[in-house]
Design a protein that fits this description.
The chain has about 675 residues and is of the alpha/beta class. The protein has 17 helices and twelve strands. The chain has three domains: about 210 residues, Four Helix Bundle (Hemerythrin (Met), subunit A), CATH 1.20.120.1730; about 170 residues, 2-Layer Sandwich (Heat Shock Protein 90), CATH 3.30.565.10; about 120 residues, Rossmann fold (3-Layer(aba) Sandwich). Helix 3 runs antiparallel to helix 4 and helix 7 runs antiparallel to helix 8. The strands form three sheets. The chain has a five-stranded mixed beta sheet with strand order 2-4-5-7-6, with helices on one face. A five-stranded parallel beta sheet has the order 9-8-10-11-12. Strands 1-3 form a two-stranded antiparallel sheet.
Length: about 675
């Protein structure tokens, strides 16, 4: 039976893998135990042979001692003949007793009965001969004693010596045979042990190989199958015959492969859905990062606007007061007008910073974009020059939206300037207006917009690379040379449209021009374009008492002079705590509290709450360099509060104070 057949037979046995391994283990252990038993029996045999050798060695030693003893007795007897001293007689008797003891020990250790009997008979004759020799010597028959000693005692002693030598020879022969038997037993034991060891090792290797093959074969098959499954090739294992845990594992693998094959059919569709979701997440993340950038710029712009607007309030206010004091033909009016114009430009820069961060104060109205673009067309033609063709395509019907007309004009002007710079060698600029229905347009943000008005600005210029498009709406990003661009144009467009509730998108390819598409919510019944209210032409006198609270000295002094010039009684304080002390000491009526919003020690809203506690009928007018919507979003101002936005003119402040006192002013912070 080949190993393969044995392997398949073992694999096909219906038994747990643990039982198969235990069977192989116990089989090898049984062989090793049998080897141990055989080794013990062989060792016992060798010990017995060794014991017999020890007894034979002892017998040989005793026989040699017997031989030596008889020689010593002969010598002592000879010495007695020569000296006739009793000392030798005593020694001879002692040696004779010792001889008898040795002979007895030889009888018990290995000497045969015949050998012992012959030696005893010879020793007895020797004893009688010794006694006769000693008797003759004592009687003075020295020659007879010596003759008897030689004739009998010497002869008998040599006979005993011959007997002992024969016994020694026999024992040595027996010793050699016993030694050879022990060596044979050792060789048999060694052979048996080596055979069992070789057999055990061979059996262990064979069983290990068979069991390992019956285990590793399905494992290798499963490993190869798993590798192919990982590559998308869902295979089945049919040549595994194991009926143990490995067989169960193979069946599970086949079932899993079938299930994965079914799931793999939908993998591409699922991957496509995930790719779309990932793209949507990337767009959302891009919008979030853009929003964070705009929020950071907004915080910066708000802080700059506050401090800058305080300075501009003093500049524009003082310039306006100087103009009121000068005659129409005074040459100093030119310098003051230049100061006013410069301040207006600085104020416009502040509004632009607020626009790109969507923090500026808007004045939205219902307007028709057809009329707005039509009124701008002459300005746009002069702006782009004669080398660029301008095509204006109005929408069919009214393109009504609710927005700040000034800001929308700023959007169109910025896009026109951007297109002009992209067509330095000439080209075509078109501005198209149309009404769109819900879901008709989709922008980069992925949102489907509702019904509205589409404003498309298209040029045939150089176009933009994808890298430029990714950053074009970021503040201060520009591709123009240093000194020829601020990087605020498109960022301002984006901020205005977003604050107006609209969306903006761009399509551009290098060398094929750029198209900006803007969507704004549509409204019904558009109103004609109107200019912003400039206030009353004349300052009206007042008689009320006003508490003026402002931490900026320049702004406070300007407001005080304007209010005094209009006839009001002015009580001024530089912070909230000072104003509160004035209110606590005053019992007369207080008509108006004109206060800054953000001040050290105590802010405007906290001051208002405390003042109203003592003067419930007092009117409140806030003034601040921060945008009013930013203050409202942060919870600084309460709903319904009236705000005077910095920078303001003396006429604007006087009008707003008068309107608030007369009850004709609508809140700017609903």
């Amino acid at each position: 039976m080949s190993f393969k057949r044995i392997e398949r037979w073992i694999a096909g046995v219906r038994a747990p893998l643990k039982i198969k391994l235990q069977f192989g283990f116990f089989l090898v252990i049984g062989v090793l135990v049998l080897m141990g038993v055989v080794s013990l029996l062989a060792t016992a045999e060798i010990r017995e042979h060794a014991h017999q050798l020890d007894r034979i060695d002892e017998s040989v030693h005793l026989a040699l001692r017997v031989d030596h003893s008889i020689l010593l007795q002969e010598h002592l007897s000879s010495m007695f003949l020569l000296t006739a001293q009793d000392t030798y007689t005593a020694k001879l008797e002692t040696e004779q007793q010792k001889f008898r003891t040795l002979l007895a020990e030889l009888r018990s250790s290995g000497g045969t009965g015949e050998e012992i009997a012959a030696i005893e008979q010879a020793f007895a004759r020797n004893g009688r001969a010794v006694d006769q020799v000693r008797q003759l010597r004592r009687e003075g028959h020295e020659h007879e004693a010596q003759a008897l000693h030689v004739a009998q005692e010497h002869t008998i002693a040599h006979g005993i010596e011959a007997l002992t030598k024969a016994a020694v020879a026999r024992l040595r022969a027996l010793q050699g045979a016993q030694h050879r038997e022990m060596l044979a037993a050792q060789r048999r034991t060694t052979g048996a042990v080596v055979g069992f060891v070789v057999f055990s090792v061979a059996l262990a290797l064979m069983l290990g190989s068979i069991l390992a093959s019956s285990i590793l074969h399905p494992v290798r098959k499963m490993d190869a199958a798993l590798e192919r499954i990982a590559q998308g090739n869902f295979v089945m294992l049919d040549d595994v015959v194991n009926r143990d845990e490995l067989g169960t594992l193979v069946n599970n693998l086949n079932r899993t492969s079938r299930q994965l094959s079914a799931l793999y059919a939908n993998e591409r569709q699922t991957a496509q859905v995930l790719e779309e979701q990932l793209a949507s997440l990337e767009r959302t993340e891009a919008r979030r990062r853009q929003g964070q950038k705009m929020e950071a710029v907004g915080r910066l712009a708000g802080g700059v606007a506050h401090d800058f607007n305080n300075l501009l309030t003093v500049i524009t206010g003082r310039a306006a007061l100087l103009l009121m004091e000068l005659s129409a033909d005074d040459p100093k009016r030119r310098d003051i007008d230049l100061i006013t114009q410069t301040a207006d430009r600085a104020s416009a820069l502040t509004r632009q910073l607020l626009a790109l961060s969507r923090k500026q104060v808007l004045q939205p109205r219902i307007l028709d974009l057809n009329e707005l673009v039509g009124s701008l067309e002459p300005i746009l033609r002069r702006l782009i020059g004669e080398h660029i063709e301008l095509h204006v395509l109005p929408a069919a019907g009214a393109a009504a939206v609710k927005a700040d007309p000034t800001q929308i004009e700023q959007v169109i002007l910025n896009l026109t300037v951007n297109a002009r710079d992209a067509m330095s060698g000439g080209g075509t600029l078109s501005i198209e207006l149309s009404q769109v229905s819900a879901g008709q347009l989709q922008f980069d943000e992925g949102d489907h917009v509702g019904p509205g008005v589409s404003l498309v600005v298209r040029d045939s210029g150089t176009g933009m690379t994808p890298d430029v498009q990714a950053h074009m709406f970021e503040p201060f990003f520009t591709t123009k040379e240093p000194g020829k661009g601020t990087g605020l144009g498109l960022a301002t467009v984006y901020g205005i449209i977003k604050q107006s509730g609209g969306s903006v998108s761009v399509q551009s390819e290098l060398g094929h021009g750029t198209t900006f598409m803007i969507w704004l919510p549509r409204v019904e019944n558009p109103a004609p374009l109107e200019g912003p209210s400039r206030g009353s032409a004349e300052l009206r006198a007042g008689r009320e008492t006003i508490l003026l609270v402002e931490d900026e000295d320049g702004v406070r002094e300007l407001a005080r002079e304007v209010l005094l010039a209009h006839g009001y009684t002015v009580i001024e304080a530089r912070d909230g705590e000072s104003a509160l002390r004035i209110v606590e000491d005053r019992r007369e009526r207080l008509h108006l509290l004109l206060t800054d919003v953000v001040m050290p020690k105590m802010g405007g809203p906290e001051l208002v709450r405390r003042v109203i506690g003592r003067h419930p009928d007092v009117k409140v007018l806030y003034m601040s360099g921060y945008p009013d919507d930013a203050l409202g979003e942060q919870g600084v101002l309460e709903p319904g509060a009236v705000l005077l936005q910095k920078p303001f003119t003396p006429q604007g402040m006087a009008d707003k104070v008068r309107q608030l006192l007369d009850g004709t002013l609508i809140s700017t912070n609903p």
